[in-house]
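[job 4417] fold queue: 2 targets
>>> target A
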Amino acid sequence: MSITTDIFRTWTRPGTVIREKLAGGPREDRALILLFAACLLLFVAQWPRLSREAFLAREAATAAGTPLDQVPGIQALMGINFFVFLFVVPLIFYGIAALSAGVISAFGGRIDPYAARIALFWALLCTAPLMLFQGLLAGFSGPGPAVTVIGVLVALLFLWLWVKLLREAMR
């Protein structure tokens, strides 16, 4: 099945989808691709917000009489975020997956570290479309209660899905 179909199926039948993902045995290349796809979507989700910030910075600099060459442009903001989301964030998520497997083992559960990684990376990829919506909202409206509420909702949905996938991966 296509990955988009699997993402939509995950929201209704997470156990079935994670079992299918784990049925092929441990394949670190698949885990890495899932993580990079999720991180790429998270990076794209930042574009509207970054564009807004760059525009507002240029407007403020123009109003204050600051030379525009001293104001960080959209290229600088995009470059920094590209580096962070495609090089730093994947390492953080690998650490979170290892930590979750360790915590589960410490409390007497049994989970394969690969299964813990797939559960986390797949939950992240499945919530990426919601994060794209949050990024679009942040770009259009700027910081405010709507963006905060959507952010909290996305975080709760991510945690709910991750826990469901972890529980199924432990079986």
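>>> target B
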Amino acid sequence: MVDIAETRNLTLAGGLKVLHAAMAEAERIGRPMCIAVVDAGGNLLAFARMDGSKALSVISSTNKARTAALSAEPTGGAHADVEIQIALASENKWTNLIGGLPIRIGGIVVGAVAAGSGTGAQDLAVARAGAAAIAGSDMFDGFVPMGAEDTGIVRGSHPKAVRD
């Protein structure tokens, strides 16, 4: 039995690199965003609230990043039928809003990035651009959101693809 595990963590320099790449994508698509970058433990490393972004997205983007880091999964992947129960069970520290992405290198989560103020698809695209700034980061290409945020989802059904 092993008593100590090796870990890797996103540094401040890495967090700023992720933040700047995500901001560049938000500017490119013309959607000001709140962008949060956390380390593997969900601790905030870098944050920006772009001019014109939604004030409440400060909270939701930070929660998305923490959720993605601690769950090791993109946010928005829990089925709409259970998202409220999971949020309550975690004392509202978990969110299923689309747009949080773990930064996973070689199967190890080193941090996460999340964006908020756009549609779920826009938030996820900005988060992916941020994560891509770290060489070898998993882009979770097969991820399909299943939460109630995606208005194309009817409770009890499973979508085949992400809406644009």
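[job 4417] complete. Note on B: The mean pLDDT is 90.
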